[in-house]
Amino acid sequence: MLFFDFFQNLVDSGAQVTVEMKNDVQITGTLQAVDQYFNVKLKNISINNPEQVRILCRLALNAVEFKNGLYPHLLSLRNCFIRGSVVRYIHLPDLHTEALTDQCRKELAQGGVNRIETAK
């Protein structure tokens, strides 16, 4: 659960992240919570590409355009919960990730040894 622990540390530090969803909407906010399924809870959010929300509106409603897009309430939200299955990427702040990379390699090496030993 290395990546889960990594995200928990980001929650504790109040990191600012950008969540890109599969429908191309990007939401930036302060990371408030993450669970084991990578469901994400953000506060103080802003929509990075409100024009994309308008484009999705035109596509979904056959050129019927609302002033504030398909989901006008999305532009006025301050807090949100994003289900992990709709997340494409989570853009992280610039961090020193060398320690994370080293720990991943160690866990992978230990996991490989354990699998070989249990197979015998």
From TrEMBL:
Family: Belongs to the snRNP Sm proteins family.
One cellular component (GO) term of this entry: U4/U6 x U5 tri-snRNP complex
MF annotations from Gene Ontology: RNA binding
Domain Sm residue range list: 5-92
InterPro entries assigned to the protein according to its UniProt record, in alphabetical order: LSM_dom_sf, Sm_dom_euk/arc, U6_snRNA_Lsm2
Matches recorded under Pfam families: LSM
Keyword RNA-binding listed: yes
UniProt-recorded name of the protein: U6 snRNA-associated Sm-like protein LSm2
Biological process, per Gene Ontology: mRNA splicing, via spliceosome
Record keywords, A-Z: mRNA processing, mRNA splicing, Nucleus, Ribonucleoprotein, RNA-binding, Spliceosome
Keyword Nucleus: yes
Gene3D superfamilies per record: 2.30.30.100
Localization: Nucleus
